[in-house]
Structure formats: structure tokens, C-alpha cells
Amino acid sequence: MRPCIPRVPLRQTPISLRLGVRANHSAPPPPPKTPVEPTVFADKSSPREVHNRPEIIRGMPPLGSKPKVTTSTGEKGFSTKGREEAFSGPSKPRLVYSRPGERDLPKLKSRAPLVIGLSLLGLGWGLFLLHATNSERLASSVLRQVTFQLRNSPQVIGILGENVRLQENWWALGQPWINGTINLMQGRVDLSFRIRGNKGGGTVYFTSIRPQEQGAWRIVRYKLIADDGEVIMLENMQARS
């Protein structure tokens, strides 16, 4: 059996005993540090690589140099080892490149090809518009009705002969050329064109208007002038546009 040890309360234990118990559980003290010896410099440090001073590279006098007359005009300069240069004033900006001498301005190219090209373009566009408007008049119902009446008119056949038709023109690309305007919306038709038969040819003039917007068309002029000078009035044929 274990011996019975009486328990003593912590408050009744002596302070030295309690401090000894706590001291046993703490870390050991650190070892003493060795003293650091100071560094002593006996002389100034010298650079490993020797370079020229900036004033020598730029052509300026080094520190401590004395002025020396280097020109015959009495200007004072500064002497350097193996190099002498005189300074008469502040530095001036230098030209990066030499200016070109006086010479004539370059001649402009001829504009004749450009003018000719634009003229041909405008002429071609104008001819296209004329051809388009002429084709539109040829395809109109007014011209078809008028030519139908001319082919079946006994008076026209008696002067021009059989096979009355519109006269083709070489400068109109093989098509008949119709002068005038056809404007059905505004009520105005004014045409003149050439026709030809087996006996001869002539010029037809046809003009018709519509006085009212919803009214009937009224023929103002409708006649044929043959090449021999004979004139035929065709208003009695009651052509309608």
C-alpha cells in the first residue's frame, strides 16, 4: 500500500517552494554573446576601374585647370591632356542636315489627260441619257397609236407610198429619233419625227393637250410635211394620245 501523504493547500505552501517549482519548468538562459570587433580602415578605398571624368568626355575643362591662350585673337581656353578647345560663348544649336540650295520649283504635270478624260466621261453620260429618253419615247403608247394611224391613212399612202414606217438613223444606233416630250401626267404631248414610204419621206408634227385633269385630249397640231413640200393636215383623223 502507498503511504498516505497529506495534502497541503497551495496558499499555505511557502513562496520559495512555489517559485522553485515554477523555475524548474522555465527555459534555460541563452549563452553569452561574443563581442564583435570593429572594422578599422587604414586608407581610402580605390576604384577597381578607372574612367575618364564627365567633363573630359564632354570637352569641358577639368576641375582645377588653369586658362591658357590657344588662339591668336586673345581668347582664353582650357587645356586638357591631348585635347585643346576654345570657347568664345555659349553653345549654339547645330543643323541636323544641310539646307538645300536655291532651286526651281518642280513643274506641274500636264492636266490635259485629266480634262480630256472628264470631257469624254461627261459626253458619254450625256449620250446615254439621250439614248435612254429616246427609247422611252419609242416605247410610249402615244407614238404607237400615231404611227398606226399613219400606216393606215390613205392620204399618207398616196404621197409616201406603201410600207410607211419610222425612219432609222445611223447616229441613233439604228433606231428612229423622236424629238419632243411626252408627259401624260401634266397633259402635254409634243412630238416630231421622220417617216418614210416606198415613194419618199416626210416629217410628222403631232401636238396634243388635255385642258382638264379628267377631261379628254385635244389635238392642237397634226400634220405631215413631205420632202417635196406638200403638206397634209391630219387633224380630221381624230387621233387620241
From TrEMBL:
Q: What is this protein called?
A: Uncharacterized protein
Which stretch is the leader sequence? none
**Biased composition range(s): Basic and acidic residues:** 45-56
State the superkingdom: Eukaryota
Q: Name one GO cellular component term.
A: mitochondrial inner membrane
- Chain spans, region Disordered: 22-100
One GO BP? mitochondrial respiratory chain complex IV assembly
Checking InterPro entries in the record gives: Coa1 (IPR014807), Coa1_fungi (IPR042432)
